[in-house]
């Protein structure tokens, strides 16, 4: 009995590999985005703690040096939060572009998979027809031999 052979199997395998690579890139960018969001949250928490500490220093006997350190640290944190926001915006754009690339790769793979399924179905129908012809010939030959 003949076995089904899909002529474009190597192309299908290539498209599967491309899709997997695009998925991996998407996951890496998404993880990087989550990490950057975590860093931003950390900076914001530090900023809140420093503001609270500065308020405590100002309410008691005020040491000018400590106030200056806190205000410089708050400036640094504000700058880091701004940089983090920029990185997050860039990563979100990059993530969206990668998502579109991944969707295109998935669509290309599915096209070939559907073609393979259709060809496999056609092969199965053809095989069933050939088997039916062989059975019909056997029946005709036996019927003719009886007469």
Strands, helices and their partners?
Layout: H1 9-59, H2 64-146
Helix pairs in contact: 1-2
Oligomer: single chain
Task: Give the overall shape.
Answer: rod-shaped
User: Can you tell me the residue ranges where pLDDT is under 50 for at least 5 consecutive residues?
Assistant: none
What is the distance, rounded to the nearest whole angstrom, between the alpha carbons of the first and last residues? 32 Å
Return Rg in Å: 34 Å
Biggest sheet features:
none
| Number of spatially distinct domains | 1
Q: Classify the helix fraction into a percent range.
A: over 70%
Q: Report the mean per-residue pLDDT as an integer.
A: 92
- Number of extended strands: 0
Which percent range describes the beta-strand content? under 5%
What structural category arises from helix and sheet content? mainly alpha
Instruction: Give, in order, the helices and strands.
Output: HH
Q: How large is the count of helical segments?
A: 2
Overview of the molecule:
With 147 residues, the chain is an all-alpha fold. It has one domain. Helix content is 91%, strand content 0%. The protein contains 2 helices and no strands. It has helices spanning 9-59, 64-146. Helix 1 packs antiparallel against helix 2. The radius of gyration is 34 Å and the shape is rod-shaped. The two termini are 32 Å apart.
């Amino acid at each position: 009995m003949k076995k089904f052979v899909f002529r474009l199997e190597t192309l299908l395998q290539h498209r599967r590999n491309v899709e997997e690579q695009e998925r991996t890139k998407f996951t890496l960018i998404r993880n990087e985005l989550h990490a950057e969001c975590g860093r931003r949250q950390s900076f914001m928490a530090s900023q809140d703690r420093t503001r609270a500490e500065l308020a405590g220093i100002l309410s008691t006997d005020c040491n000018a040096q400590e106030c200056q350190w806190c205000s410089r640290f708050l400036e640094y944190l504000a700058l880091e939060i701004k940089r983090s926001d920029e990185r997050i915006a860039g990563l979100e754009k990059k993530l969206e572009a990668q998502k579109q690339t991944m969707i295109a790769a998935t669509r290309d793979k599915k096209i070939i998979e559907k073609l393979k399924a259709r060809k496999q179905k056609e092969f199965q129908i053809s095989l069933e027809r050939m088997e039916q012809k062989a059975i019909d010939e056997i029946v005709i030959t036996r019927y003719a031999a009886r007469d």
